[in-house]
Specification:
The chain is mainly alpha-helical. It contains three helices and two strands; from the N terminus they run H-H-E-E-H. 1% of the residues are buried.
């Protein structure tokens, strides 16, 4: 924490508050060990359902882009 506070040009308490806000807003699984002055971050593995939903959303978006580009291309050729 001390090194981070120094790098951020903040005092120790301000750096600790900044890290707490960062953890909260980014929804990280992390905690601050005040005794040792360290931030402990646990690796998070999304569950299978979350992974499936995220991959499906990404696939849907890519499919939409591909179809849009294909339609634009075919309409451009039909206009010739």
């Amino acid at each position: 924490m001390g090194v981070l506070a120094e790098k951020l040009n903040l005092n120790y308490e301000e750096a600790e508050r900044w890290i707490v806000n960062l953890i909260r807003t980014s929804k990280l699984d992390a905690k601050i060990d005040s005794e040792s002055g360290t931030v402990i971050m646990e690796p998070t593995q999304p569950n299978v359902h979350e992974q499936l939903v995220n991959h499906t959303k990404a696939l849907s978006g890519r499919t939409y882009k591909l179809v849009t580009q294909l339609l634009e291309h075919t309409q451009g050729q039909a206009a010739r």
